[in-house]
Amino acid sequence: MPYDKALGTFFIWCRIKIPHQPLLSYLLILLSFLVLSPILGVLINLQKIEPFC
Q1: Can you tell me the distance from the alpha carbon of 25 to that of 44, in angstroms, rounded to the nearest whole number?
Q2: Once rounded to an integer, what is the mean pLDDT over residues 15-40?
Q3: Cα 46 from Cα 44, distance rounded (Å)
């Protein structure tokens, strides 16, 4: 899934960009999970209900 690749790239970018502030990077990752999980869940459910051609 392209979503997994994008999330992995985001996590790697966070770790490289903010290595001296691990707490902040972990908070950003947690926040991204809280924000993206419902959005991705809705998108996946929409694709299950009405698959795009």
Answers
A1: 27
A2: 76
A3: 5
What is the secondary structure of 6-51 as a DSSP string? HHHHHHHHHHHH-TT-HHHHHHHHHHHHHHHHHHHHHHHHHHHHS-
Residue 46 Cα to chain centre, angstroms: 18
| Structure-token match 């926040």, residue found | 31
pTM over 0.70: no
Where b means 16+ CB within 10 Å and e means fewer, 3-23 reads: eeeebeeeeeebeeeeeeeee
State both tokens at 2: 């392209």
Amino acid code (one letter) for 32:
S
